Amino acid sequence: MSSDKSKSLADGDLQVIPAPERPKPALPPLPPAVGSKALVEYAPPAPVEEEDLEVKLRRIIDHVPVRVSNTSGSSAGSGSGDFHQYRQMRRKEQDRLVRMDLDYQRRKEMAEFNMRREERMKAAEERTTKKRLKRQKKKQRKKEKKMRVNAGGEKEQQKEESSDDDGVSENGEDAVN
Questions:
Q1: How open is the CA angle 168-171-177, to the nearest 5 degrees?
Q2: Which of 49, 86, 92, 171 reaches 20 to 30 Å from 26, CA-CA?
Q3: Euclidean distance between CA atoms 136 and 172, whole angstroms
Q4: CB 72 within 8 A of CB 82
Q5: Distance CA 91, CA 3 (A)
Q6: Radius of gyration of the chain from Cα atoms?
């Protein structure tokens, strides 16, 4: 039989050799699909917060096609319509740059507005807090003064009652026990 194998190789027949196994990437195992017979299972995309900006940029660069329209040919010289194509491309590019500048200015103004607004809100909150404390202190002082007056009035009433106990009434008559 070994002579048959060497004979078939010599005749130009193909030989099947098993390919070395590739190491599988270290990915978490997929959950088993219960009733699905699909060849490809849907996996939800990773949350945006977890992705690094560089990874996002790389993915965008890799997956977004680059389209170049109205390219000139490789032959030397230019035709009569090339100037008009150039003007059109230049106008589109200028419009794009103007839109980018306007968008940048709008975003900058919004950021400044929000910053000033936050500062105003903070200052207003500080003023409100300060005035609230002032009102509370005034109210507390008023309450303490009222308590002192009431306490002082009670002392005067007690003095009057004690003087009544001494046997002299307010009329100047002797109190009868």
A1: 40
A2: 49
A3: 47
A4: yes
A5: 77
A6: 47
Cβ neighbours of residue 82 under 8 Å, at least 6 residues apart? Answer: 72
Task: Say if residues 175 and 167 touch (Cβ distance below 8 Å).
Answer: yes
Task: Compute the distance between CA of residue 132 and CA of residue 24 in angstroms, rounded to an integer.
Answer: 67
Mean pLDDT of 34-56: 66
- DSSP states of 111-176: HHHHHHHHHHHHHHHHHHHHHHHHHHHHHHHHHHHHHHHHHHHHHHHHHHHHHHHTTB-TTSPBPP
Alpha-carbon span 105 to 42, nearest angstrom = 41
What percent of the chain is predicted at pLDDT more than 90?
30
Over residues 4-24, the mean pLDDT reads: 64
Q: Which residue carries 């809100």 as its tokens?
A: 121
pLDDT digits (tens, 9 = 90+) for 67-104: 766 666 666 567 777 788 888 889 999 999 999 999 99
At residue 129, φ and ψ (nearest 5 deg) are: -65, -45
Which of 31-45, 47-61, 89-103, 142-156 tops mean pLDDT? 89-103
Provide mean pLDDT across the span 98-127. 95
Residue with tokens 């589109």: 92
Check residue 33 and give its pLDDT.
57
